[in-house]
Amino acid sequence: MLAAHFGIRNVRKGEIMADQKNSDIADASRAFVKHLEDTGFFNQIRDLEGNLTKIADELQSFGRSAQARMEESENLAAHILAIESILAVMLRSNPIDGAALRAEVKDRTAAISGVEEGSPAVHAIAEDIIKRAGA
């Protein structure tokens, strides 16, 4: 009879209740979305998305720069190895005194390395070049 009172025909009682529940859910959803809009939540999300996009762009730029530095380093290493190879061949024809080399390394690197005997790395590299030259 209630259905007839509202002009609804051939509708079962459960269907009216389901429609009311769906309407309540829709109203609650709209109210929640309005609350999110009123509190600026969507603006914050939009700002966050913009910031994340900027970060992604910066990371891509950083990656490109790192790749370029790596290529430059590889190029520098290739040049150094070429020079060491030439020097090793030259040293075969013109051997040098190992003690004089160690003294030169000490004089050139003691102050900048903070090691009284000079840079251990420079000593090791110089000794390796001499050894490869067979001098």
How is this structure best summarized?
The protein is an all-alpha fold and 135 residues long.
Task: Characterise the protein shown here.
The protein has 135 residues and is mainly α. The longest helix is centred in the middle third of the chain and has 53 residues, at 41-93. Helices cover 84% and strands 0% of the residues.
The major β-sheet equals: none
Strand content: under 5%
- Residue stretches low in confidence (pLDDT < 50, at least 5 long) are 1-8
Radius of gyration: 40 Å
Q: Which percent bin holds the helix content?
A: over 70%
Number of strands: 0
Dominant shape: rod-shaped
Helix/strand structural class:
mainly alpha
Number of helical elements: 5
Distance between the termini: 114 Å
Q: What is the H/E string? A: HHHHH
| Overall mean pLDDT | 87
Characteristics of this structure?
135 residues; mainly alpha; 5 helices; 84% helix; rod-shaped; disordered N terminus
Task: Walk me through the topology.
Elements: H1 2-5, H2 13-38, H3 41-93, H4 98-113, H5 120-133
